[in-house]
C-alpha cells in the first residue's frame, strides 16, 4: 500500500506514473467532494443561499477544469517533495517521539504563519498588470466566486502556491500528520473564503480571520484584501478593506 515510501520506488517508472495519476485523482476528487458538501450544507442551513449549480453552471464547469489542472500540478510538486524526502533533504519526520508535543503544535503554527506571509506578497505580485494578465487572471474570471473557485488557478499559479512547502520542509522539522492537517486546513479555508456566504458572525473574529465577505471584496476590487487566513498583513500594509 505504501509503495511510494520504498527505496526502490524512484527506479520504477510505472510506480511513479501510478503515484502521479492516483494522487492527482485523489486530490481532485477530494476538492470536488469538499466543495460540494460545503455548498450543500450551506443550502441546508441557509435557505437564502443561491443554488450555484443552476445560476453559475458554466462558471463552475470552467473552475472545475482549471482545478483538475491545479490538482495535477500539486501532485507533481508533492512528488518532488517526496523525492527530496527520500534523498534526506527535508526535515519531514514520522516518529512522534522525535520532538516534544509542544513543538509538534508549534511547527503547524510556523507553517501557517510563514505561508500567510509568503502568500500575501506572492498575491500582491500576481496583481502586477504584466503578471496578472498571464497568470492570476484565470482565478479572477470568477468575479462572484463559488466554493469551486478555491482551486481554479492557472497551472503556474498552482506551482507558485505549492512551492513554499518543499522549501519550508527543508528548513523546519514537521511531522507528516501535521503537514496533512495544515493542507486540509488550507482546503477548508479556501472553501469558506470563496463560498460567497459569510459564516463568521462575530465582528471581532472578522477583524482578524478572513471569511467570504472579506475575500469577495478582493474579487471585485482587485486591489485590496490579499491575505489568505488573517487580515494582519492587509492591515499593516494599508490594503485592508472591510466588506
Secondary-structure blueprint:
Blueprint: H1 13-45, H2 52-55, H3 57-86, E1 92-93, H4 101-126, H5 129-132, H6 155-162, H7 164-171, E2 174-175, H8 176-194, H9 203-208, H10 212-221, H11 232-237
Parallel strand pairs: 1-2
Short description:
The protein has one domain. It has helices at about 15-45, 50-55, 55-85, 100-125, 130, 155-160, 165-170, 175-195, 205-210, 210-220, 230-235; strands at about 90-95, 175. Strands 1-2 form a two-stranded parallel sheet.
Essential attributes:
two-stranded parallel sheet, 243 residues, 11 helices, globular, mainly alpha
What does this structure look like?
The chain is 63% helix and 2% strand. The chain has a two-stranded parallel ribbon with strand order 1-2. By secondary structure, it is an all-alpha fold. The chain has one domain (3-237). Helix 1 crosses helix 3 (57-86) and helix 1 (13-45) packs across helix 8. The chain has eleven helices and two strands; from the N terminus they run αααβααααβαααα. It has helices at residues 13-45, 52-55, 57-86, 101-126, 129-132, 155-162, 164-171, 176-194, 203-208, 212-221, 232-237; strands at residues 92-93, 174-175.
Arithmetic mean of pLDDT: 92
Main beta sheet strand tally, sense and closure: 2 strands, parallel
Helix % is: 55-70%
Indicate the structural class.
mainly alpha
Strand content: under 5%
Low-confidence stretches: none
Distance linking N and C termini: 47 Å
What spatial order of strands do you see in the largest sheet? 1-2
Number of domains: 1
Rg, rounded, reads: 19 Å
The gross shape turns out to be globular
Tally the helices: what do you get? 11
Amino acid at each position: 500500500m505504501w509503495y511510494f515510501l520504498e527505496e526502490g520506488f524512484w527506479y520504477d517508472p510505472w510506480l511513479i506514473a501510478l503515484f502521479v495519476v492516483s494522487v492527482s485523482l485523489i486530490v481532485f476528487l477530494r476538492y470536488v467532494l469538499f466543495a460540494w458538501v460545503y455548498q450543500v450544507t450551506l443550502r441546508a442551513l441557509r435557505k437564502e443561499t443561491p443554488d450555484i449549480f443552476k445560476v453559475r453552471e458554466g462558471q463552475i464547469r470552467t473552475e472545475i477544469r482549471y482545478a483538475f489542472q491545479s490538482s495535477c500540478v500539486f501532485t507533481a510538486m508533492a512528488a518532488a517533495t517526496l523525492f527530496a524526502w527520500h534523498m534526506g533533504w527535508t526535515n519531514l519526520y514520522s516518529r512522534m517521539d522525535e520532538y516534544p508535543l509542544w513543538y509538534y503544535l508549534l511547527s503547524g503554527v510556523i507553517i501557517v504563519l510563514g505561508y500567510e506571509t509568503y502568500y500575501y506578497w506572492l498575491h500582491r505580485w500576481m496583481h502586477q498588470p504584466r503578471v496578472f494578465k498571464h497568470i492570476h487572471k484565470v482565478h479572477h474570471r470568477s468575479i462572484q466566486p463559488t466554493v469551486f473557485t478555491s482551486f481554479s488557478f492557472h497551472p503556474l499559479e498552482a506551482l507558485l502556491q505549492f512551492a513554499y512547502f518543499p522549501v519550508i520542509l527543508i528548513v523546519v522539522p514537521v511531522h507528516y500528520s501535521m503537514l496533512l492537517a495544515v493542507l486540509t486546513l488550507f482546503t477548508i479555508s479556501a472553501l469558506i473564503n470563496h463560498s460567497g456566504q459569510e459564516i463568521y458572525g462575530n465582528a471581532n473574529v472578522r477583524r482578524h480571520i478572513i471569511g467570504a465577505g472579506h475575500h469577495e471584496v478582493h474579487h471585485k476590487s482587485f486591489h485590496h484584501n490579499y491575505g489568505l487566513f488573517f487580515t494582519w498583513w492587509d492591515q499593516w500594509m494599508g490594503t485592508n478593506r472591510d466588506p
